[in-house]
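Re: [help] complex structure
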Amino acid sequence: MAFDPATLKYDAQGLIPAIAQDAESGEILMMAWMNAESVSRTLDTARVTYWSRSRQAFWVKGESSGNLQHLVDLRVDCDRDCLLVLVRQEGPACHTNRRSCFYTAVRDGEEVELMTPEAG
Amino acid sequence: MAFDPATLKYDAQGLIPAIAQDAESGEILMMAWMNAESVSRTLDTARVTYWSRSRQAFWVKGESSGNLQHLVDLRVDCDRDCLLVLVRQEGPACHTNRRSCFYTAVRDGEEVELMTPEAG
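Output below.
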């Protein structure tokens, strides 16, 4: 069946959450939001393109930092209201310069930092 | 630092997205939503507990199906507005009886089904 981004389920702001996973290691790198046009651009360019809610603008991941996300595979969930993008990530995915945004764990009621920023 | 679920960033409905990942294989199983009380219950019981938006009720994953999610580790992202739960999943995570909800891929403009339902 031909894929049409309009068939996905978007929230009241026209957005759908997109989880980015390292295609090779399986590590979860980040979660951000896409609108229908971001989904199309991601598929057309193979550069993962989110919608920045703070800037209200398209956000080609890594466009300014150089830490691009190259699309390897795009997955849709059963409810069609969440996306999984398997990517080849250049450099760190997190704006704190860590590999992943999920660098804090909760263990025995305490927050524990699992990763340190990569050397610039 | 002691972890307090109230310090997470929830949306206008008081919810935060939670990504469930198989702790052993790294496979992404599903994405659902939690409120502050679901986060507390998940940590207290080690059974992953979402908030069902359709039923407007707590949803102990697998409570009726038996396909429980046992919490292995809880992670918080840099913006504190998304959670990652590493789990030990009993049975399939998806209500379609597939291991993961992300069983559809978009390849060359077509939707491709990657997984079939497990035998009941």
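Chain B touches chain A through 37 residues (CB under 8 Å).
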